[in-house]
Write a structure and sequence with these properties.
3 helices, 5 strands, 126 residues, single chain, Immunity 8 family protein, Imm8
Length: 126
């Protein structure tokens, strides 16, 4: 089974990903939402990822931290961002959707990450 990006957006009415322009040329951070689901099947799960530049991190994030769910870029280039995201999604395959989603959640924040209907965390496989 393979996965596919079905949608990508930001939760704001001020701009879309297609018309976004940062105040500073190479200094920005966006929280981007992703709709990813199995190829040739109905249904998707929601994921998210922070996209930012090293300059933004230097200006706004001074604490030492292990970073996850973040895509570091040099400038806002929507085509490059989409390519990085879709290339990673294409690498994630599995026997079923949960297996794929667990792999995706190694990079993207998954809406069901650590969720189990039985009160136990889902085991990470990646």
């Amino acid at each position: 089974m393979k996965a596919k990006l079905h949608g990508m957006w930001v939760d704001t009415s001020k701009f879309t990903l297609e018309d976004y322009q940062s105040d500073e040329k190479n200094c920005f951070m966006l929280l981007v939402n992703l709709k990813i689901g199995p190829v040739n099947k109905i249904g998707s799960d929601y994921f998210s990822i922070h996209i930012c530049t090293p300059e933004w991190l230097c200006k706004h994030h001074w604490t030492a931290e292990l970073m996850r769910h973040t895509l570091l870029v040099r400038q806002y280039d929507l085509e490059e961002i989409k390519n990085v995201i879709t290339n990673y999604i294409e690498l994630c395959d599995g026997e079923n959707w949960v297996e794929i989603a667990q792999k995706l959640s190694g990079v993207f924040a998954w809406e069901f990450e650590d969720y189990s209907p039985y009160g136990q965390s889902i085991q990470q496989t990646s």
